[in-house]
């Protein structure tokens, strides 16, 4: 008889025999025998092992009143993937992790669409254990970011500003700042409807080159005041200067937020300000 070991969704160890799963029930204090019962509550099948982990057949019941579990293969893949998740790869795409695992298997594994959904869900649950709990207020947001090492795939720091005084958070990296400084024209856009909790606005700076728009800077803002935009622009300008870059675009293309042009003029006196046609159309519709 060939026994294998796997884990339930709750992380409890299971013993598998002929595609039937058994969970640990108890250990005898007198004999030291360990009894494992079928995971199907209505089934009386059980396995009894001695201290040497050898099956005692005369005490075991191997007849089941139900069919073997058809999801064993799926659960085995899920178990294997979960065991390989660590802090070093929690940011790797789930689909990539699953493909790696399937390629490493010796035997052809036949999985259905529902199996992949099950594996992805378990993988997501495993990853969340390495992240802090969801913050309940803005102070917890700042605290969580301080404790997190947020980097890009090039190992560049992605968190530029985490200001607890102004409640402004800016995400960008060295590569993006360098690219931003090479732009003759910078596009700015803010969204209020899809901003995360505890913040008022999600503000983004884009570059445009070779016919492609690229998001380069992301900021979470507490309001839409001119002083807030000025603070963001100054932090970006100073960060670029620190790295030896000069952020001085010829033109800024903006939406119709009143505070943005005033803030731009206070930092870049010679830059041209243009309003976006898309946002102009939205304003007309309103």
Automatic annotation (TrEMBL):
Pfam families: FLYWCH, MULE
Single GO term (MF): zinc ion binding
InterPro entries listed in its UniProt record: MULE_transposase_dom (IPR018289), Znf_FLYWCH (IPR007588)
Residue intervals of the MULE transposase domain: 186-280
Domain named FLYWCH-type: residues: 7-54
Residues spanning the membrane: none
Top-level lineage group: Eukaryota
Alphabetically ordered keywords of this record: Metal-binding, Zinc, Zinc-finger
Gene3D superfamilies: 2.20.25.240
The name this protein goes by in its record: MULE transposase domain-containing protein
Protein's organism: Macrosiphum euphorbiae
């Amino acid at each position: 008889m060939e026994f294998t070991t796997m884990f339930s969704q709750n992380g409890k160890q299971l013993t598998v025999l002929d595609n039937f799963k058994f969970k640990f029930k108890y250990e005898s204090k007198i004999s030291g025998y360990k009894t494992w019962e079928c995971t199907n509550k209505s089934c009386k099948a059980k396995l009894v092992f001695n201290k040497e982990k050898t099956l005692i057949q005369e005490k075991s019941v191997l007849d089941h009143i139900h069919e073997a579990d058809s999801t064993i293969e799926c659960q085995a893949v899920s178990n294997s993937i979960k065991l390989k998740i660590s802090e070093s790869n929690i940011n790797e795409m789930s689909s990539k992790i699953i493909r790696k695992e399937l390629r490493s298997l010796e035997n052809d594994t036949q999985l259905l669409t529902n199996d992949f959904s099950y594996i992805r869900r378990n993988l997501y649950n495993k990853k969340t254990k390495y992240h802090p709990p969801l913050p309940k207020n803005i102070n917890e947001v700042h605290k969580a970011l301080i404790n997190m090492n947020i980097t890009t795939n090039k190992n560049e720091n992605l968190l530029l500003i985490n200001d607890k005084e102004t409640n402004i958070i800016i995400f960008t990296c060295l590569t993006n700042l360098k690219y931003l400084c090479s732009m003759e024209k910078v596009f700015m856009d803010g969204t209020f409807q899809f901003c995360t909790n505890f913040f008022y606005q999600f503000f983004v700076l884009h570059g445009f080159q070779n016919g492609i728009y690229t998001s380069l800077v992301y900021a979470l803002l507490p309001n839409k005041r001119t002083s807030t935009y000025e603070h963001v622009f100054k932090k970006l300008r100073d960060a670029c200067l620190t790295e030896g870059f000069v952020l001085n675009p010829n033109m800024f293309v903006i939406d119709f937020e009143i505070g943005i042009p005033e803030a731009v003029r206070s930092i870049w006196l010679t830059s041209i300000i243009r309003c976006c046609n898309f946002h102009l159309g939205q304003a007309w519709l309103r």
